[in-house]
Design brief:
By secondary structure, the protein is of the alpha/beta class. It is 41% helix and 12% strand. It is built from 5 helices and 3 strands. It has helices spanning 17-33, 45-48, 80-94, 118-133, 143-154, and strands spanning 40-42, 64-71, 100-107. A 3-stranded parallel beta sheet has the order 1-2-3, covered by helices on one side. Helix 3 (80-94) links the parallel strand 2 and strand 3. Helix 4 (118-133) runs antiparallel to helix 5. It is globular.
Length: 155
């Protein structure tokens, strides 16, 4: 079950970790009190692109999966700077941690105001695949299907 998609984004609290923690603690409490015991996918601040402070703002539940969202926005390729940012924001945190992470939203289209590069998407899928296959990352949802979709429409 998913909690709050891209919590508080579209407003002034998109990067507010304290509000993120408070809102999610309430949501998790409601689900658990209603009897739900399964895993809950949790999105984070900055459109669920930054998980760097989840240890500082714990949600106190052992059955959570933290979801990562990535879009190319105005990037035409996956640069080394972006790779460094992704490693700092979530990829390195997942390795050997007590938290489960999954890339649950990826896209090359994030609105008409962005470049929306298929090349970035293909590069990111390679990065994510390597993260799972060779670095110990937890998972990527529908990466193969999405890669086929991207390759099909890139032709």
């Amino acid at each position: 079950i998913g909690a709050i998609n891209e919590p508080n984004c579209g407003g002034p609290d998109c990067e507010n970790w304290e509000k993120w923690q408070t809102d999610h603690m309430q949501y998790i409490k409601i689900l658990r009190e209603a009897g739900y015991r399964g895993p809950i996918v949790i999105n984070s601040v900055r459109y669920s692109s930054d998980l760097s402070k989840i240890g500082q703002y714990p949600l106190l539940d052992d059955n959570l999966i933290y979801g990562i969202h990535k879009y190319g926005n105005n990037n035409t390729t996956l640069t080394q700077k972006l790779i460094n940012d992704y490693n700092a924001e979530w990829a390195n945190l997942a390795l050997g941690s007590k938290y489960a992470f999954v890339i649950d939203e990826v896209g090359n289209f994030n609105g008409e105001n962005f470049i929306n590069s298929i090349s970035w998407t293909s590069n990111f899928i390679d990065f994510a695949t390597d993260w799972v296959a060779n670095r110990g990352g937890d998972g990527v949802i529908a990466s193969q299907l999405f890669e086929i979709f991207v390759l099909f429409f890139a032709v």
